[in-house]
Amino acid sequence: MSEVALAHRPTASAAGCADAPILRERGQREVFCGLTGIIWLHRKIQDAFFLIVGSRTCAHLMQSAAGVMIFAEPRFATAIIEDRDLAGLADANDELDKVVARLIERRPDIRLLFLVGSCPSEVIKLDLGRAAQRLDRRFAPGVRVLNYSGSGIETTFTQGEDACLAALVPQLPAADGTPSLLVVGTLADVVEDQLRRILIELGIERLAFLPPRRAGALPPVGPATRFLLAQPFLAETARLLETRGAARLPAPFPLGAEGTLAWLRAAADAFAVDPRRFEAVTELPFERARRAVARWRPELAGRSIFFFPDSQLEVPLARVLARELGMDPLEVGTPYLHRAHLAAELDLLPKSTRLSEGQDVDRQLDRCRAARPDIVVCGLGLANPLEAEGLTTKWSIELVFTPIQGFEQAGDLAELFARPLRRRARLAV
Q1: What is the mean pLDDT of the chain?
Q2: What residue ranges define each of the domains in the chain, with the CATH number in brackets?
Q3: What is the pLDDT of residues 260-272, one digit of tens each?
Q4: Strand ranges across the sheet with 112-117
Q5: Would you say 347 and 316 are in contact if contact means Cβ atoms under 8 Å apart?
Q6: pTM reported for the whole predicted model
Q7: Whole-number Å distance between alpha carbons of 121 and 162
């Protein structure tokens, strides 16, 4: 390998956060519920439908969060639990069966139906697992019916995707023993196409993505399967894939120029790709990404940033901002910190970074106010009050909804953090 290619390899130092103490907090939290994962999942699996079994509040949340107009026909809806269901005046299972039957009759394009549990359905102990089995027997093979929980009682909002993909893993067909690569995590179609093209150019042609774009294209999995996580919040999905014999490839996540290169290298090393081929395939896109990120460095270098726990993207985002943009992550809070999945990321964080897991929002607000960071990354519920106090904020949910993975999106990712500073500067004038 040439000296240029060696220079692309991220190096961890003794200053990393791999062994840093973690402040674990348990208290009042400020997060969306897992139902919001449907917003990006229903766009990805094009013949799937997500039927939330919940309250009118669930319906209003999804309607407003997705920006769906009343005359649109998205691939999700809410089967509303009425007072008569709660009072036992109607059999909730019978009512659900009727709703599903009408839905499938009206939408013959549906090939995969998810019954999505919510806080209300869990509170009244409605067994959606058994309901899914019953309905699956009724409508198979034309429509498969699965279930998962999107409840926000004990989870953060990105765990809705983890629960959905975990429900798919037992349905994946067995692999034939040929080595293959599985990329796990919902990516925008444009990002998936870019990563697929690079991986195929590297010679990795036995390649699939989970979730697939069509329900009938579930990828096979087995002991010869190697998988790369594209998102850091898929702990249960990864565990279930490992029970099927698949092996996870440790790597940073494909965020920023450096992270994307290291993520691709993990696949290349696992499939014995010639280093010269790796360099030839990745050198130009890496350089484009590096230049795109460097454009924003003058505006961000030396700025401090504080992450409230919200999406579980916080650790890899802090790594990009610190290493590629010269920012100073004061505190990186995350709802759940999976040390094994984030090991490569923690190695690359500055040692001075405070790591926190979970949330006690009042205590974290006190630390944030004392630190007076240049940018605060937080949920919508905290952003406006902090802006009123003179702090500059970035909505964490925007980082989930926006395509930010891969080489071609590295500059867009950097720009997302420059925007709030520019907005603050304009308002100050």
Answers
A1: 90
A2: 3-29+293-428 (3.40.50.1980), 34-155 (3.40.50.1980), 180-291 (3.40.50.1980)
A3: 999 999 999 999 9
A4: 76-80, 48-54, 112-117, 144-149
A5: no
A6: 0.92
A7: 19
Query: Using one digit for the tens of pLDDT, what is the confidence trace for 65-111?
Result: 776 555 557 889 999 887 665 555 457 888 899 999 999 999 999 99
Amino acid at 297: R
The two tokens of residue 143 are 């429509």
Q: Can you tell me the distance from the alpha carbon of 30 to that of 27, in angstroms, rounded to the nearest whole number?
A: 10
Cβ pair 400, 364 in contact under 8 A: no
- 3 state SS of 207: strand
Specify the amino acid at residue 315.
V
Residue indicated by tokens 């093979």: 141
DSSP structural state of residue 330: E
CA distance 84 to 102: 20
Strand order in the sheet with 180-184: 207-210, 180-184, 225-229, 247-248
Which alpha helices (DSSP H) does 26-91 contain, by range?
38-44, 56-66, 83-86
